[in-house]
Design brief:
mainly alpha, about 100 residues, 4 helices
């Protein structure tokens, strides 16, 4: 019934968990196609801040969004300028950063 649509992982990237709320609302209203669109929008961001850039990427993304991410603890290093720019592009593509 909900093929391809999975429960969202809450993130600090969406004020008020707006994407989660819309996705949940779409599911309640049986708007499965629209729910899948919301879910798929978040996949690149999820991949960037988990598998690709890790904790330093998560912290940098929070900083880009106006939250406090701060510096990663040693031995981790903050993303370099190219990585930060890539995070910015991903955030813009998901619609979370203007």
């Amino acid at each position: 019934m909900f093929e391809g649509v999975y429960p969202p992982i809450p993130t600090p990237f969406v004020d008020g968990e707006a994407a989660h709320d819309r996705l949940a609302e779409n599911l309640r209203e049986s708007q499965h196609g629209q729910a899948q669109v919301w879910q798929l929008r978040m996949i690149p961001l999820n991949a960037a801040v988990t598998a690709r850039f890790g904790i330093p990427g998560l912290k940098a993304a929070l900083d880009l969004l106006g939250y406090y991410g701060g510096e990663p603890r040693s031995p981790l290093s903050p993303p370099n300028s190219d990585q930060s720019e890539e995070l910015g592009r991903i955030l813009k593509k998901t619609g979370l950063l203007a």
